[in-house]
Write a structure and sequence with these properties.
Length: about 325
């Protein structure tokens, strides 16, 4: 820039001098115009070059910074700041409703999501008061909900386009739990084996009517907080817990071989019985009365037993 202005100054100084010397000679004028044009062009090229060369590194730096920023937003996946997580849990736990999880139940799930390798695949049975919370806590991951109320699932998806919800038709009844568990035990080497693609399963407890691509996902965290109801003709959570157990053991991909499975309302007998049967005591890492936390490992494809140790529960086969 400095050179540029000095060459301009030179031109202005030259101008009257040449005019004085040979203003009569048109050739001189032509020569001057040519020279001026040449100098102007050279100056222009030089200026452009120095502008480009001086600005190129900073432009590249900016582009790189933007690319890095968008990459970190897309896939690098910084977890939610701790205080944001705590705030979300606070407001969820203190909402004016009886249909909610306590802070003590929310916290272990939030912690598992925080530690989950990104991007985390989070599957939830039951659309509840916490639905938006789960989606928010799993900020960079995939969060999918399965609910027995198709109208509510459609409503939630419409109200909150960021929510991915599927409706499922449960065929079970809570009062038939004993028979169902006995049947699964009998078929643990065929239809109801612990490692399989549930899409093709005829097991009575398998949820096999979700979209095909659902079964290709390796779910890292699964929460069973549905279906609703604990009366005898309510569907019960047998299918949800069985399905969670099979999905966890049938993980394929290169991600974590572990799956965190949480069972809410674990204080109630059906949840304990089904968890003992399909998630197994040996995998129970913590419980606080209302919430059971299991960590399941991927299993050998030919396995025909859910638990290594025999289940301590006797209620399973009692009905047959
Ligand atoms: C909580 O909800 C109930 C019923 O919806 C209402 O009567 C009550 O005033 C609410 N309490 C607070 C503190 O908002
Ligand atoms: C599972 O069983 C099939 C057939 O019975 C066999 O070919 C396969 O090698 C077995 N896989 C493992 C990992 O044992």
């Amino acid at each position: 820039m400095k050179d540029n202005s000095s060459s301009n100054t030179k031109l202005i100084l030259l101008h009257p001098y040449i005019l004085k010397q040979g203003s009569s000679n048109r050739l001189w004028l032509l020569a001057f115009v040519s020279l001026f044009t040449l100098i102007f062009l050279l100056t222009l090229i030089y200026t452009r070059e120095s502008f480009t060369s001086s600005s190129t590194p900073s432009a590249t730096t900016i582009t790189t910074t933007i690319a890095a920023a968008s990459a970190s937003r897309g896939s690098n996946n910084v977890p939610l700041p701790k205080h944001v997580m705590t705030t979300l849990l606070h407001y969820a736990a203190n909402a004016n409703t009886t249909e909610k999880m306590s802070y003590a139940d929310l916290k272990p799930i939030a912690d598992a999501l925080r530690k989950c390798p990104s991007p985390c695949n989070f599957l939830i049975f039951g659309l509840t008061h916490e639905t938006l919370l789960w989606r928010a806590l799993n900020n960079h991951g995939r969060t999918a909900f399965v609910d027995e109320n198709r109208y509510y699932a459609a409503y939630m998806e419409e109200q909150h386009p960021e929510i991915e919800a599927y409706d499922v038709h449960y065929t079970t009844k809570l009062k038939e739990m004993g028979e169902l568990i006995a049947t699964v035990r009998e078929q643990a080497q065929n239809e109801c084996r612990p490692v399989q693609n549930l899409l093709f399963s005829d097991c009575m407890l398998a949820i096999n009517d979700l979209p095909n691509q659902f079964y290709d996902v390796d779910w890292d965290v699964i929460l069973v907080d549905g279906p609703r109801g604990h009366w005898p003709t309510a569907p019960g959570r047998m299918s949800a817990i069985f399905t969670a157990g099979v999905l966890a053991r049938s993980k394929k991909g290169g991600g974590s071989s572990k799956t965190h499975v949480f069972v809410h309302d674990y204080n109630l007998d059906p949840q304990r019985v089904c968890s003992d049967e399909f998630l197994c005591r040996e995998n129970l890492v913590e419980e606080n009365g209302m919430l059971g936390h299991f960590v399941l490992e991927r299993m050998d494809e030919n396995s025909s037993q859910f638990c290594r140790r025999k289940s301590p529960s006797k209620s399973g086969g009692s009905a047959s």
